[in-house]
Amino acid sequence: PTSAHARCAAARCLHTRMPDGNSAPRRARGAEAAAWRVLLQSLLLAGAASVSVCASGAPILIQGGTVVNHDRQFLADVLIQDGVIAAIEPDMQVPAGAQVLDAKGKLVMPGGIETHTHLDMPFMGTTACDDFFTGQAAAAAGGTTMHIDFALPVDHDIEAGFEAWKGKAERSCIDYGFHMAVTKWDAGMSEAMGRVVQKGINSFKFFMAYKGALMVDDEQLIHGFRRCKELGAIPMVHAENGDAVVWGQEEMVRRGIVGPEGHALSRPAILEGEATARAIKLARFVGSPLYVVHVMSIDAMEEVAKARKDGQRVIGEPVISGLALNESMVWHPDFNVASRYVMSPPIRSAEHGLALRKALAQGTLQLVGTDHAVFNSTQKAMGRGDFRKIPNGVNGIEERMHVVWETMVNSGMMSPMDYVRVTSTAAAQTFNIYPRKGHIAVGSDADVIVFDPNEEHVLSASTHHSRIDSNVYEGMRIKGRVVSTVSRGRLLWDAGKLYAEPGTGQYIPLPTGGPLFEGLDVQHQAEMVPHRYGRTPVARTAAMGSKVEL
After folding, report:
1. Distance separating alpha carbons of residues 55 and 48, to the nearest angstrom
2. Could you say which of 160, 219, 321, 492 would form a disulfide bridge with 154 (CB–CB 3.0 to 4.6 Å)?
3. What is the greatest pairwise CA distance in the chain?
4. Could you tell me which residues come within 8 angstroms of residue 446 by beta carbon, excluding any fewer than 6 positions away?
5. First to last CA, the chain
6. What is the 3-state secondary structure (H, E, C) of 421-472?
7. Cα 362 to the chain's mean position, in Å?
């Protein structure tokens, strides 16, 4: 297992790919390259006691399936041992004591990596009802083997927030990492960001909405983006114009529109588009990459598309509710039904969903999350009579892999290889853990699913594993199902049975300086330091005739 991890480390050090699938070699040079080779050889030869691998019991042989990665697919058996993929070959002999998973006629794919969750999150006067065990167990049942949760500061203290989320995650059963939210700015915050990066944080989220609670202003965004660039960390934005949203909410209430439909009407797509454009332009000004979470509208998607066409490093993340649902349900006459669909930014009308699906298929948007933040019907009822008090959030951590397959692959918009890219590989590449995660290769973590493309099932609250008492995908028929989920060599889901145990997940530190940063300084310097009129600063003549830089 140590050798496997060393090989995987070597691959990460010497080569990676951009999230849109384009090759981006990252080759160490000169003495640095030699040092890496010596280190990796010493790890291989000495046994590398410092490399920890969670042992997983008996080997697992996945037999007779079609292995699907983001770049190719082929028939082969997959041998899993000591938490990693040990071999990929056709017609392997069954090792002594191995558990065999029959994958004939099925697809063998990397486990899903979910980039956008809120487990055990305190929000709007209550706490999300899925904790790190129930949410992750649901994820495993749906084929997700790792997720990245959003940690919130404690009284604006991001280090305290990190420790609080590590405590919440003690009940985990799959692998996980953290994004960190930044909700204020000062010199102390800049220093704290540097310290949490050392603990495995490589992304920071800035809210442009939720005024008076989480929202930051443009000046704070600029400082935050610049600090992210210095650290090699990815700035992320929740893009809505928070000031305009507050005005829209007050306007709805003034008109007597206080039900869930008021939520959608108070924060239209134009406000999402405006904030997305503003964040993109500020990131370009500073010279940082940008990750736009939950792209929910044509307006926001077109801003991402325009920036990427201009060569800017922008990642757009749609979520499955935006791809598969429409806003009509918030007009349902039953408050309990309508409130289930309240999230921010809101689910939009059907034409937005179609445009987002096309953008995902074309590569304009790169990967799919869920914004899984679940509140049961009694919690949602806090907003009866005032939509501003409805806790925002919908489910999706268990449904994501199936909904993407149904809407994108069964519709003919994507191939199975594209599916792997948007549900797993692009996330691993973006957050700098590829090919340890997001890829089926010798030495990669044994995060693998077996998927039956012909099995039909129906999504329902009566069968899901989340604690939430409803499901916004209720009654959705799916052709294609995850039949087995293996997480770091542990069989967590098989033949409709869940074997997850709390406390068995592993925190995955996310390294800074990923592929989004390669060549970024050169690109920004060429754009922001003009030479059209000569060198800068300009040498000007002082009053006494001597030349000085003025």
Report:
1. 15
2. 160
3. 91
4. 56, 60, 80, 81, 83, 84, 85, 486, 487, 488, 489
5. 61
6. HHHHHHHHHHCCCCCCCCCCCCCCECCEEEEEEEEEEECCCCCCCCCCCCCC
7. 19
User: Which distant-in-sequence residues (6+ apart) come within 8 Å of 474 by Cβ?
Assistant: 459, 460, 461
- The pair of structure tokens assigned to 96 is 């002594």
User: How much is the pTM?
Assistant: 0.89
How many angstroms separate the CA atoms of 324 and 411, rounded? Answer: 12
Pairwise CA distance, residues 454 & 450, whole Å: 12
CA–CA gap between residue 263 and residue 248 (Å, rounded): 9
Strands 73-81 and 60-68: antiparallel
CA distances to 97, 137, 194, 293, 423 from 145, in Å? 24, 10, 28, 20, 11
Peptide bond into 511 cis (omega under 30): no
Helix residue spans in 368-488 (DSSP H): 377-380, 400-404, 416-420, 426-430
Question: Which tokens in the block code for residue 374?
Answer: 């679940």
Give whole-number Cα distances, 15 to 22, 88, 194, 432, 437, in Å: 12, 21, 26, 11, 14
Enumerate the β-bridge partners of residue 179: 150
Contacts of 399 (CB under 8 A, 6+ apart): 142, 320, 370, 459, 464, 471, 473, 476
What pLDDT, in 10s, does the model give residues 394-440? 999 999 999 999 999 999 999 999 999 999 999 999 999 999 999 99
Q: Which is nearest to 292 in space by CA: 269, 315, 323?
A: 315
Cα separation, 465 vs 353, in Å, equals: 26
- CA separation for the pair 466, 134 (Å, rounded): 6
Contact 408, 419 (CB under 8 A): yes
CA distance linking residue 205 with residue 371, whole number of Å: 13
d(CA 530, CA 514): 27
pLDDT value, residue 529: 63
* Residue count of the chain: 550
Question: What pLDDT, on a 0 to 100 scale, did the predictor assign at position 79?
Answer: 98
- Return d(Cα 9, Cα 433) in angstroms, integer: 10
Pairing of strands 73-81, 234-238: unpaired
Place of tokens 């030495």: 443
Tokens 């914004």, residue? Answer: 371
Residue 490 has pLDDT above 50, yes or no: yes
Written as six digits, the tokens of 440 are 């089926």
Token pair of 28 as six digits: 């160490």
Q: How far apart are CA 183 and CA 189, in angstroms?
A: 9
pLDDT tens, 316-369?
999 999 999 999 999 999 999 999 999 999 999 999 999 999 999 999 999 999
Q: Could you give the CA distance from residue 437 to residue 434 in angstroms, rounded to a whole number?
A: 5
Q: Is 68 helix (H, G, I), strand (E, B) or coil?
A: strand
Which is nearest to 461 in space by CA: 129, 115, 125? 129
How far, in Å, CA of 417 to CA of 472, rounded? 27
Residue type, 121: M
